[in-house]
Amino acid sequence: MSRFRSTNEARGGMFVPYLLVLFFILVESVPVNFFFSGQLKIGLYFVPLFFIGLTAESDATPISLAVLGLVNDILSEMPLGFWSSLFVIFYLLCMSQRNILATASFGSFWVTFSVLISMTYLVAYLLALMIGDLHLATVPFLLSAFVCVLFFPLLYFPLSLFREALSASERN
Predict the structure, then answer these.
(1) Residue 144: what pLDDT?
(2) Per-position DSSP letters for 66-93, written without gaps between them
(3) What is the DSSP letter of 30?
């Protein structure tokens, strides 16, 4: 597996997934009141997180994802640590699937992403229930997970181009 440690060849491509996560966090924080889309938390940042979970082996990756989650917490006005913990949980779930997906087809990636995103949104819903102050509407929240799964191919194929840049980095 490749690391996100920098070399001269992979220096430009190694931060792209992290920048995409930050970009999608910023885009999702923009208020939109088109029909019921104001209640949706589509979570397009989970696609680059999936890519990071399958490729990154750096010890600092969970910390950087937790920081990005804190940014999402602040921008979405959620309790500190809500999205941060979900980002790290999703990363760990993705990391556990590396060996299985090493030689998988795109369909396997999509199904695995669907299962992992469903598990993450379920954990988010259960966390919201445990906190008590958060009132997440069930149908829009489940619809958000479904929309995120539908957008997976549109975001994963461009990200797969950076896998080559990451594979050129240092190996174990």
Answers:
(1) 84
(2) HHHHHHHHHHTTPPTTHHHHHHHHHHHH
(3) S
